[in-house]
Specification:
Bound molecules: flavin-adenine dinucleotide
Radius of gyration: 22 Å
Length: about 475
């Protein structure tokens, strides 16, 4: 059954798309379109139910700006919904079309234009691993990247991601000037290029593909380092957290990763279980090789175990601890036990007290997975590492998730709700009012990923019942 407001493409439009993009790059075959309409939305039982039936009517793969411009022009003239797609590793259904129409696959626009003076300029479909691998021989590396870096695209990271490995030093993607410039293509019959620099570029950041097509990005890089990986283990949660905080806040130790995993989460990581003892809480660290010996002796002096170290290797090879951190932790847990889902939480300085309260109020339901990140100048916490968390939650019902989120709010824990596909409900935007203004200028007819910016007044496809309801609505 078609979902409410579903928009089909006429045969003439499909022919015209084939003429500009190549018929081999256009599909309206239901199975192929279904695949190209989905991402990792099934992480959330709420999203799985609400978005399962949503899909595009057709998909087109573009490999150059000229072809994209022609495709956008045809779609704008026809007034159909257009949804950008990178590598589709997003886990909030960001690239699932709510109203049918056309999915535009940008994975073929994947050229690195330059890596110069600590800045990479690249096309949106470029995989983050390709940038890292091209930058390192030149003495540079990504400041931060998601644990999906092998597949994820640069444009998708800017539009749908927030941070990851490296954020312990550089904060989120939107912090410390990491995004230098974004070039957008407008959604008009004669599409224009709009160039946004520095702070302005943040208006196009994390907009879930609603604010123009990102066609080129400049990111600031970090000087490349030799990263060693280390596992630290303890049966004592309190001792482990003492050590984590000390390392996370010690600026003399260059770091890329400080992840904390409450027992039994490590038991879900089947491929690497042999490297650490059972029934222990763990820290996964990536630290500069010059500091490895020092950190190891500090851990042992604190009564902690260091069961495994992985020396720097160029290029990096498995096992990589980061493959078990950030939202990969959630993936391993779901693989081990399909009952798990997750939240995305921001703790305050009292994170130990807050975790204790959550354990007490929801016994056996929440397991803590912490990711320490450099604080943001936006909330005056820049000098220290703050405790973010992607806690695992044993799913009972939507009502129960609501209760947990509500309790978090009461005890001062913020939530970036991962159980909604609406950018205005996700709770990450730095300046949503300016994002909405940008949308009005780059997508005047509201054709781009319609419905995802739920409160935007221009949605030509809105019919009663056409938007799914989520936890915060
Ligand atoms: P997609 O999923 O293809 O797209 C994401 C959004 O961007 C969609 O709304 C899409 O419409 C839009 N979009 C894509 N390209 C463009 C463009 N050129 N112009 C305009 N809009 C565009 N995220 C993190 O931030 N940190 C993590 O550590 C992390 N870990 C993850 C681990 C797992 C196992 C999974 C499944 C997800 C994780 N994610 C993480 C989420 C996701 O992988 C990343 O945000 C990733 O960078 C998204 O890139 P993508 O190319 O897959 O984007």
């Amino acid at each position: 059954m078609l979902s409410p407001g579903f928009i089909s493409l006429s045969p003439d439009l499909l022919d015209a798309l084939g003429a500009v993009a190549g018929t081999e790059n256009v599909t309206s075959d239901p199975a192929g379109v279904e695949t190209l309409s989905k991402d990792y939305y099934w992480y959330s039982p709420v999203l799985r139910e609400r978005l399962e039936a949503r899909k595009a009517a057709a998909a087109v793969k573009v490999s150059s700006l000229d072809v994209l411009r022609d495709v956008v022009s045809l779609a704008a003239k026809a007034g159909i919904p257009i949804t950008p797609r990178g590598a589709a590793t997003g886990n909030y259904g960001q690239c699932i079309p709510l109203y049918g129409g056309l999915v535009v696959d940008l994975s073929g626009m994947d050229g690195i234009v330059s890596i110069e003076d600590g800045v990479v300029t690249a096309e949106p479909g470029t995989r983050l691993a390709a940038i890292e691998n091209a930058a390192r021989p030149k003495g540079w590396e990504l400041r931060c990247y998601p644990s999906t870096w092998v597949k994820a695209s640069l444009g998708g990271f800017i539009s749908g991601g927030s941070g990851g490995i490296g954020s312990i030093t550089w904060g989120g993607l939107r912090d410390q000037g990491t995004i230098k410039q974004i070039k957008l293509l407008t959604i008009e019959e004669s599409p224009r290029i709009v160039v946004l620099d520095e702070e302005k570029a943040l208006e196009a950041y994390h907009a879930y593909g609603t604010n123009g097509f990102i066609v080129e990005i400049q990111l600031r890089l970090a000087p490349a380092r030799h990263w060693d990986q280390m596992i630290v283990a303890s049966r004592s949660w309190a001792d482990l957290l003492d050590f984590t905080q000390a390392v996370a806040n010690d600026d003399s130790i260059p770091k890329r990763l400080v992840s904390v995993l409450e027992d039994p989460i490590p038991s879900y990581f089947k491929p690497i279980k042999k490297f650490y003892p059972a029934d222990h809480h763990l820290i996964f660290l990536e630290i500069d090789a010059s500091k490895t010996a020092d950190v190891k002796s500090r851990a042992e002096a604190a009564g902690l175990l260091v069961p495994h170290q992985i020396a720097h290797h160029e290029p990096r090879r498995a096992p990589m601890l980061s493959d078990y951190t950030w939202n990969h932790t959630t993936l391993w847990a779901i693989k081990a036990d399909g009952q798990f889902t997750y939240l995305q939480s921001g703790f305050t300085d009292d994170f130990r007290g807050q975790m204790a309260k959550l354990h007490e109020r929801f016994p056996g339901e929440i397991l803590f997975h912490l990711e320490f990140v450099k604080g943001s100048p936006r909330n005056a916490t820049m000098s220290k590492a703050v405790c973010g968390s992607i806690p695992l939650v044993r799913y009972r019902s939507e009502e129960r998730l609501r209760e947990i989120i509500q309790f978090c709010t009461e005890i001062g824990v913020s939530t970036a709700n991962p159980h909604t596909c609406y950018v205005d409900e996700a709770g990450r935007s730095n300046d949503f009012v300016r994002q909405k203004e940008l949308k009005a200028s780059v997508d005047p007819k509201g054709l781009l990923n319609p419905g995802k910016m739920k409160t935007h007044p221009t949605n030509p496809f809105l019919v009663p019942g056409s938007l799914p309801e989520f936890l915060f609505s």
